[in-house]
């Protein structure tokens, strides 16, 4: 289905909001997510509804249809393959690839994505630790990880996923050596919700605010 990059961005935004809220999404929420007027959103909703990519229930909100979800998952696959290519072969930092992949994903064909996956030896995760959908657009259940905030002091974990949407958060994690694959010892959880962690190659602890730590996923290990 031939869609404009703008239409694809609307579908992605709705998908993101559905994941966050688990309910139909209101026009004003889409406008805030994308940074456009409600009038622009209403016009695009009508277009996407007519094409069978979402369902709009007046006074309730919109939800993606199966076809809409398939387009979003295809974009996610392209996006994460591109991020992997940029870091592995063009020497981009993992903190800098999200926006670049955002620009490129709309101009990559399905055939190119298939060839790129083969070239990269079919990676299962991107540089942020997010799962890459396979050719059938499915994601392994093993990709589900536990938020760092659910672990207790004294445990040792390995960072599995870091948030990719907020550049400032990515930079904070990078500057403190916290990236996928980093082993952490949870030294303490303070009364104000600050996690004190010690990366495996560091002597001093790093403070991670809860608002960031809850978006960092990890898996348990033993030291």
Summarize the structure in words.
InterPro entries: DtxR_MntR_Metal-Reg, Fe-transptr_FeoA-like, Fe_dep_repressor, Fe_dep_repressor_sf, HTH_DTXR, Iron_dep_repressor, Transcriptional_repressor_C, WH-like_DNA-bd_sf. By secondary structure, the chain is an alpha+beta fold. Among the domains are: 5-64, Arc Repressor Mutant, subunit A (Orthogonal Bundle); 146-220, SH3 type barrels, CATH 2.30.30. It has eight helices and eight strands. It has helices at residues 5-21, 27-34, 38-50, 66-89, 97-104, 110-119, 167-175, 210-213; strands spanning 54-57, 61-64, 146-147, 156-161, 183-189, 194-199, 206-209, 217-221. A six-stranded antiparallel beta sheet has the order 3-8-4-5-6-7. A two-stranded antiparallel ribbon has the order 1-2. Helix 1 (5-21) packs across helix 2, helix 1 (5-21) crosses helix 4 and helix 2 (27-34) crosses helix 3 (38-50). The protein is globular. The N and C termini lie far apart (50 Å). The mean pLDDT is 92.
């Amino acid at each position: 289905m031939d869609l404009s990059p703008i239409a694809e961005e609307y579908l992605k935004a709705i998908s993101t909001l559905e994941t966050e809220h688990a309910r139909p999404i209101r026009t004003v929420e889409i406008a805030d997510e994308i940074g456009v007027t409600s009038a622009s959103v209403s016009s695009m909703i009508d277009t996407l509804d007519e094409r069978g990519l979402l369902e709009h229930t007046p006074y309730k909100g919109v939800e993606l249809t199966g076809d809409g979800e398939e387009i979003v998952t295809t974009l996610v696959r392209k996006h994460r393959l591109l991020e992997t290519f940029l870091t592995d072969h063009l020497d981009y930092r993992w903190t800098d690839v999200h926006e670049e992949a955002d620009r490129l994903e709309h101009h990559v064909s399905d055939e190119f994505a298939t060839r790129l996956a083969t070239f990269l030896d079919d990676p299962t995760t991107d540089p942020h630790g997010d799962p890459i959908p396979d050719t059938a657009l499915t994601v392994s259940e093993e990709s589900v990880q536990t938020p760092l905030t659910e672990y207790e002091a004294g445990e040792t974990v390995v960072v599995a996923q870091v948030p990719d949407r907020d550049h400032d958060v990515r930079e904070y994690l990078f500057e403190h050596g916290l990236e996928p694959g980093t082993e952490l010892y949870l030294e303490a959880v303070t009364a104000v919700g600050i996690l004190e962690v010690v990366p495996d190659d560091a002597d001093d602890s790093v403070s991670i605010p809860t608002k960031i730590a809850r978006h960092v996923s990890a898996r348990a290990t033993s030291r």
